[in-house]
Amino acid sequence: MRDASPYLDDYVFIALGQHIRNPFALLFGDAMGTFFFRPVAMFLWAISVELLGNGARAQLALNIALHCGNALLTHQLLRRSGISASASAIPALLFLVHPTAFSAAAWLADRFDLLSLFFGLTGLIALRGYLARPGVARFIATCAGMLCSMLSKEIGFALVAPALAMALWPGAGKAASPRQRATVGVVVVLCALGAVAARVLTVRSVTETMFLSQGILPALASGTLKWWEYLPAFVGARHASPAALAAQAPLAVALVALFALPAARKGLAGRPVLEVIVLGLLTMGACSVVQSPVVSAFAITPYNAGGFVSNALAGCRFYYVALAGLALVIGGFAESLARSIAPARALRAVAGVAVAMAIVGLLVASRGIAREWTAFIQQRDAPVLRAAVAVVERQRFAPPGCKIYLLDLPKDAISVASLLDTAVKQALPRGDPHVACFIQSEHAPWYHLLEARNLPSDAYKPLEIIAFNGKPYPPLPVSNLAYFYLKSVDGRAIAEDPKARFYAYDGHTFNDVTADVRSGRRVIHFYDSRPLF
After folding, report:
1. Angle between the N-to-C axes of helices 111-132 and 160-168, in degrees from 0 to 180, rounded to the nearest 10
2. Whole-prediction pTM value?
3. Are 530 and 34 in contact (CB under 8 A)?
4. Backbone CA torsion sign across 31, 36, 38, 42
5. What SS3 string covers 109-123?
6. Are 409 and 417 in contact (CB under 8 A)?
7. d(Cα 372, Cα 394) in Å, to the nearest integer?
8. What is the pLDDT of residues 457-501, one digit of tens each?
9. In sequence order, which residues have a C-beta less than 8 Å from that of residue 497 and are 6 or more positions away?
């Protein structure tokens, strides 16, 4: 992935981190003006750009490091729950190398799920420690981990279910009194309610109607059923490469062994085994419910034998946290198998084979998926984006509010066109005057992100503010920047705008066609809706 480039939503997160002057503003306000509220993750995104720069290579390395950290935390949670070392290592390694989990980590924009799971697992491990040995530090770590998980992405709310089950699970070896367990459970719920309140008070609620137009209950029902319908495809990770086979073979062997050996099922009688399995199933079920409104509104494309599909990789994010829950379930079954196999030497041999196969799976899956993902971006979006950045940097006319129209983008570069403004600006150095310009194609992008300190209030004209559900959707200030949500309607006014410059793509570079546009020799058809609507 060292040759990969940003893609789609990556642009805005890098651009925001690259040009914002006060990243702490992301912790206490709406950072996007869209349907989500993820202040912790947005703040950490800005910090990562500050420390690592805007290059995709370093940012992707951070994603993979977070994914590896989540595998280690999954292992630790199993160990702290009374599962043996071998039975904990196998599912953690499976989670690490699974093509769906790796694919989610391979897309920069999916860092939200990685961070949410990272903080959530940290909170659950701290909770396990508190139940074994109550203390103020562990109590605070539990609450902080759960709260940061929920404020990194909405999927963090799904981890409230296993946290409550863990706190209230009746079992031996828990030093915490029933009152202490009830208290920590209540505080976790209060943290969730606080996160919901912060969201309601901060996010423009009108945007949520895009997912709830059919009603809350129908959206929950249809989205949940759809999530479970596609789960087998993402667990199976059907793909035309040996990655899936190499990464999933240990899982298949373990499941066959469990159902083939009647003695293995006797191990399920242990309380730690049952608890871990229940925690994993609760995590998966809660993930399906929490994500149901979004899943009900989006098409999900699973991997299949037809080859690489970018939408399939993007869909993996809906199952990343759930796969960690599945790892807990597998850990419980693996422990039941471990209690049924004698001598211990046999279990160590099984674990050794699983580890070796997992290493092969990691090498094959990461190489196959990463190369296909990188090739997809490099063939479709990267050449257009490089040409766009080059022509913008060459343009000397860049007063605040200037307009730069990049025309004739290829139809298969829709991801660049839909986020063209931030796609260009994420590659510009901090302080570049073009950050105060509006950049787009014939379509207005989802949003423009501008340096707003010296920007006139009517700088966006003759572009127009969009209406959402019949109401104007005004600009959103974020520190020194501002998001504008615009549409292109009056083509003649746009052509005559003295602050506008026009460039046409010839397949290799953008050429200045401003004179032709102004004279009417070249007529441009602008569109009054954003590309993905």
Report:
1. 10
2. 0.87
3. no
4. negative
5. HHHHHHHHHHHHHHH
6. yes
7. 32
8. 889 889 888 887 777 888 999 989 999 989 888 788 888 888 999
9. 403, 462
